[in-house]
Amino acid sequence: MSRSSSLLRLTVAIDLAFCTLAFIPQAHAKVYQNPQEFSSSSNSSFDFVVVGGGTAGSVVANRLSENPQYNVLLLEAGPNNEGILELIVPGLHIQIPYDWNYTTAPQAMVNNRSFDYRRGFVLGGSSSVNSMLSTRGSKDDYDLWGRVSGDPRTWSWEALQKWILKSETWTATVGGRDPTGQYDPQYHGKDGPIRVSLTGSGPDDFDRRASRNTEIQKEFVEKLDSNDGSPPGLLLMNFYFLAHSVDEEAALRQWQDNRTGPFAEWRQVGRRILWSKIPKSSPILNQYGDPASGPNSPHLEIPLGPAGPTMVASVVLLTPHSRGTVKLASSNPFDDPLIDPGYLSHPFDIQALTEGIRITKRWLDSPAWDGLVTGFLGPDPDNTTLSETAFQNALKESVASFLHPVGTAAMSASSSAAGVVDHELRVKGVHVLRVVDASAIPYVPTTHTQAAVYTLAERAADIIKSSWK
């Protein structure tokens, strides 16, 4: 078997530190825990076989099985996720065994470092092993799908509204937080299987300080993310650590009964997320072109959070020019794939991260933070004692993966020689085979990918139903 490869697009991040003073509902479904159980089943004929019970596969199998005339087989290599606390409580997924444990190839432009490449090895896939933050991204992201696929009537923000809302149910905020003015009901679902809510705590002193940073309004638009497709220039969210003093058994019972209590909050305290655009006047956009999905989409995500006496800011590049590959290692399907993300292989990326550091520094250097931010730790492009080479080496040593990979089976127009699947997610040149997961998304969304994958899968399920009539 010849080795095959596909393009990979990922986000990369760099951590900085600032010193501070202070789906699948199982209606008419049967779960087989092992092949022996399945082989003894009387059902040996299926209308649809869904390979991979991940974020998208679970959605597609669930929606197809809504038709009682269809027999649907969903195959997942990992175990059932039912009842596993670390997989159902936000933020408890770190260092658990439900992972494929992939490792990337050494990255030449990141000082030959290799990276863990986490992928969910469990029903639910990577949706079972993430922090459960629901962010949709920009309208521009979805409109780009329409342009690339050649089918904006199917793939665009306006065309996808039904399917964007279909997977979710908006629920009351845990902890009694007043959501007034912080979300728009028309942009949230009412009867989907995924429950979405604001976090339990509302705006605090951090948020008010952020709003007072008027000197850089053009970089940080003062707007909470209402998931309405408009750019979330500045998104502020609160999270909490799960305190060690919590009665875990009581908290677990409360969580299982009604999804409230301490387990309902992400376990990291004081977290905020900012999004920012690189200024239009930046030389790197003139030199390399603007990779953003549209004029209202950010280039950078900047999560903020505490780490002892410091505040850590992770500058995440959402719009890399670099591309990677995934290749078969051999003809043995059980061998791990060869994953080469190509981190920083395009000069734009390291310059964009550098710009992101400067944007973050400017934001925290504004008057609202006087007396709180006392210094900066990390690779500093403004440190005159460092040569450019020394700075870039320091940055490369600090780079980490933010995952959210897409594009290895990218969607494109039927007539295009590029891409793997067409506008209906059919593999080009292959009969009755579709790819429905994050690999079909042609460019990294300017957000966390889970909500976008739910939308893709919901739309795909209806496309498949329509073609099967």
From TrEMBL:
Residues 46-196 form the Glucose-methanol-choline oxidoreductase N-terminal domain. It is found in: Secreted. It comes from the Eukaryota. Gene3D superfamilies: FAD/NAD(P)-binding domain, Glucose Oxidase, domain 3. FAD binds at V122, V221. It catalyses: pyranose + acceptor = pyranos-2,3-diulose + reduced acceptor; pyranose + acceptor = pyranos-3-ulose + reduced acceptor; a pyranoside + acceptor = a pyranosid-3,4-diulose + reduced acceptor; a pyranoside + acceptor = a pyranosid-3-ulose + reduced acceptor. Its EC number is 1.1.99.29. InterPro entries: FAD/NAD-bd_sf, GMC_OxRdtase, GMC_OxRdtase_N, GMC_OxRtase_C. Keywords: FAD, Flavoprotein, Secreted, Signal. It is an enzyme of class 1 (oxidoreductase). GO terms for cellular component: extracellular region. Residues 320-457 form the Glucose-methanol-choline oxidoreductase C-terminal domain. Its cofactor is FAD. Monomer. Catalyzes the single-oxidation or sequential double oxidation reaction of carbohydrates primarily at carbon-2 and/or carbon-3 with the concomitant reduction of the flavin. Accepts only a narrow range of electron acceptors such as substituted benzoquinones and complexed metal ions and reacts extremely slowly with O(2) as acceptor. This is pyranose dehydrogenase (acceptor).
